[in-house]
Amino acid sequence: MPPKPTSDWVSNKTTIEACERSCADGTSVGETIESSRTMEYHVPVMLAESIEGLNLRPDGTYVDATFGGGGHSRAIMERLGDGGRLYAFDQDEDALPNAIDDARFTLLNENFKYLKSFLRLHGVRQIDGLLADLGVSSHQIDEAERGFSTRMDGPLDLRMDRREGTTAADLVNTADVDELERIMKLYGELPNAKQIAQSIVKRRAESAGILTTNDLKEAVEKHLPRGRENKTLAMIFQALRIEVNGELEALRQMLTQAVEVLNPGGRLCVMSYHSLEDRIVKNFFKSGNFEGKIEKDFFGNPQVELKLVSRKPITASEEELMENNRSRSAKLRVAEKM
Ligand SMILES: C[S@@+](CC[C@H](N)C(=O)[O-])C[C@H]1O[C@@H](n2cnc3c(N)ncnc32)[C@H](O)[C@@H]1O
């Protein structure tokens, strides 16, 4: 699908043109254009570590399940030869203008939970590696109108794919108190989930509804412990985001399909940003199921398809932590198909 020009794209092009004129340092113009836009959209986390984790073969077929600004994809493309292929997924159409202009690259504006179907649609049955850098991009957080930011006021949307689904505003205005409590407890791991749910229901009954991020903040204000206001608010937003986007179920579906299409020796690299995601990845890599229970055959041999490349999750270096705050909570797990 060709990238759609947006006003952002146009304004970015202006900076790029200025840069093009001053590119006398031998850097290729293409590289400068692409990296400039990419870094503005999202600074890729643990770039070197995740590329190393993939153990790329120049003629291999790879998937970047979470394209975003395309930082990881570009690094993969640089290492692929003429026979290599990269298929990238992103359910957010804002990512489309970041598409890489290269015949070996395909960007699919789809949810990665449909990994197998969309690969098959493109004639791909087996892959040599998959990278997933979970969660949201800096671009999504920085756009107030998307509703991801706890700092800026905007419509309480929180959908990554705005073509479908229920917004967070629809959810908080229609779900009953038990459902809201379940979401806060399960996905926000909030000890006062019940009280938060009750305050949301009370607030919507007393007003025209909870429509903006500020409306939600006001509704839950009294449940934010002093000194932990931002952290608690972030957990409330996280809980709604996970529910609205069906994030954990999409991750389970993607992992199950990824291992099916992966060639022996192929790698899965998954970067997660909170314990709920990390637990799913950890259990699946260890046992092939989401309970983390290793099944054994009659002779006691473990029935597993993946082997861990590193037993412990890889975390960002001191240097990266200082440069990119977002890398703080990142955990990269790498497994290889046997
Ligand atoms: C952390 S960002 C990825 C950043 C990217 N690695 C880079 O270097 O720019 C996550 C991206 O994955 C997308 N995403 C998250 N869940 C998805 C899903 N289930 N299917 C497709 N895309 C998804 C988001 O829209 C977002 O753009």
**Radius of gyration of CA atoms, rounded to a whole number:** 21 Å
Assembly state of the chains shown: single chain
Q: Which structural category fits the helices and strands? A: alpha/beta
Strand percent estimate: 5-15%
N-to-C order of helices and strands: HHHEHEEHEHHHHHHHEHEHE
**C-alpha end-to-end distance:** 34 Å
Low-confidence stretches at least 5 residues in length (pLDDT < 50)?
Answer: 1-33
Net shape: globular
Strand order of the largest sheet: 3-2-1-4-5-7-6
For the secondary structure, the number of strands is 7
What is the count of DSSP helices, taking H or I runs of 4+ residues?
A: 14
Chain-averaged pLDDT: 90
- What bound compounds does this protein have? S-adenosylmethionine
In short:
The protein is α/β, with parallel strands linked by helices. The protein has helices at 7-21, 29-41, 47-54, 71-79, 115-121, 138-142, 168-174, 177-188, 193-206, 213-220, 229-245, 247-261, 275-287, 318-323; strands at residues 61-64, 85-89, 105-108, 127-133, 262-272, 306-308, 331-337.
